[in-house]
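Hey, I'm writing a tutorial for new members on how sequence and structure tokens pair up, and I'd like a real worked example in the thread rather than a made-up one. If someone can provide the structure for the chain below, I'll link this post from the tutorial.
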Amino acid sequence: MLDPQRQGLPPLDPATVSDAASCALSTRLEGVREARQFARSTLDRWELAELADDIALVVSELVTNALRHALPQPAPEDTPDESPVRLHLMRWAGRLMCAVRDPSDASPVARAEDFGAECGRGLFLVDSFSESWGWHPLAGTPHGKMVWALFRV
């Protein structure tokens, strides 16, 4: 079911992207709320509000993982334009992608084997609610990775 190994982005022709939006997120836990609100308002603007609940859940999990596991400790101070964590939304040809950039080179890891566990189920939720998901390392600057989830529109 869940394969946390590196998976490249699905094939994407930039010419077919019809909408794209991105925002820098706080490195504090408020960043999760900011990401959900940004996703919901963007989907409303794109007239895709029917997807908002599933996408908000997946975005919450991806951003939570980035804030908990991908930032150096102590977390860097928030800077308005250069946050190390960003949310990207892209829509094209019947698909929508949510992607979260973080500064870690480490692979995402599914932690919980127990679905009743209080934590560690985030990637299982991402896998359950999205069509597919994966991650890939970033080349150059900024370094880190992009963890993405794909949805049918």
